[in-house]
Write a structure and sequence with these properties.
single chain; 108 residues; alpha+beta; six-stranded mixed beta sheet; elongated
């Protein structure tokens, strides 16, 4: 089995613009997570945004793949998730290419 992407986390200063592009690519908005005056507030796409809502992240999905957008000062990938058949071999190959893997990132 070849590795397949199932999750990508992307930070961007313009979440709305990135969300529009994802929707155009058929990755629909599933949930928004944030807070109102310090209280955690999850929202469905149909729910109106409350006053003082502070977005933490939002999840877009198409099939088994989800992309999480989060506000950030510059556009960059934070992390990604892959489905693999042999985790240890994959970790070795990733390290051979100079990528870092933190022990708590490796979940089976």
């Amino acid at each position: 089995m070849c590795p397949s992407l199932f999750h990508l986390h992307f930070n961007t200063p313009n979440v709305s613009e990135a969300a529009t592009r994802l929707c155009e690519a058929r990755l629909t908005l599933q949930r928004r997570f944030g807070s109102v005056r310090g209280e955690g507030t999850p929202l469905t796409p149909e729910e109106d945004t409350p006053d003082d809502f502070r977005l933490k992240l939002q999840v877009h999905q198409h099939g088994a793949v989800n992309i999480t957008l989060a506000p950030g000062q510059r556009p960059h990938f934070d992390h990604l998730g892959l489905a693999v058949s042999n985790l240890e071999d994959t970790i070795d190959r990733v390290k051979d290419h100079g990528w870092s893997v933190r022990p708590n990132d490796a979940h089976s």
